[in-house]
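Methods — Computational structure assignment.
A single polypeptide chain was analysed. Its primary sequence is given first, followed by the predicted tertiary structure written as structure tokens.
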Amino acid sequence: MKREHEYDQRNFQRHRRDALVMERLSSSHHLVPIYGYCANTVLTQAISHTLDDVIYARENEQKKKWNPRNGYQTKPPLESWMGKDENGELVATRETELGRVQLALGVFRGLMDLHEGDGTTDMEWLPVVHADLQAKQYLIDSDTGKVYLNDFNRCRFIAKKDSRSPDASNATLATNKDATDATPIE
């Protein structure tokens, strides 16, 4: 558990959105599974590597970073922490064409579930915009190579299009800093 941010209404609302999206899409196989939520804490599956770790694994093996306890260190090689399939190939890598395609499909599937829902319910799903999408928001299970989208605390819910007005555009609800007002943004 890390304590990076103060407990205030703004951060409370961010954690609430994070938990709401994970709970509503808990049946998705492409978003990090949620086990529980309480105030500023979300309990999820432990997945220790990001898409950044996989993409830049070779570059990070060469870089030396200073650690006050152990001096200069490099990151361990990809082969030491990434699982292998039955053919002895890494389950997630950017070094092969198949590996790149599998990573790209994992990224796409997470976004698709976020935008369209996971398709397992009859309930109407209101699409969600992630609003903080970057490689470090995707987690990679080093045992299976599965890609999971994570960190929805800055997400925005897209309002329904008014079916009575054919020109009505979809608008997202953005909140101001203290999250008390909501104004549509085109």
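Note: The chain has a mean pLDDT of 82.
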